[in-house]
Amino acid sequence: MASAPDYFKNGYGRDIAVFTRTVPHSYLCGWTLNWLLEPGVEKSFHDLGGMVMCLYEANLLYQLIYTHFRCDYLEWLAVSPAFIDCRCPSCHGGVFYPVGILNFFANNQNKERLRELDFTTERLAEFDHFFQDEYIGRFAAERDVLMVTPERVRQAIAGDPHCAWNPPLPSRRVGES
Questions:
Q1: Which end of the chain is more exposed for a tag (fewer CB within 10 A), N or C?
Q2: CA-CA distance, 81 to 87, in Å (whole number)?
Q3: What global pTM score does this model have?
């Protein structure tokens, strides 16, 4: 699997295009997340696990900046990555907030399938670091922002129940949860 920055730069855009062409409605909800876990679906994507990680991070940062850093929201919209929204208006199964994406996978019983897609605690830490430190750091340095910094983003995540999470994803190491 590619590193978070490499996947984001070289595979994410292609995978989002595949997703929007393939899924009948473009929302992240219980229905689409279940569909993404079906055997064989990953063959259409460059890196299905990486795409879901990017979608989580993009939803997280969108929610966070809109809620906690409204003065920087328009700057964020100008540079934010394309993403599939987790707020499904059809109510297909309770994702609703960024943390709901992680909860969906953490509560999934097929831990081996999640490992196959490398949807793991270790990989989430890689994507967290890339988006919440590097990507936000570049955004704060290159744009005319008033409040957003990696430190403030991490503080806001920790204090927002729609963004902070506890349930563990499976580990890359079999036998650990």
A1: C
A2: 17
A3: 0.88
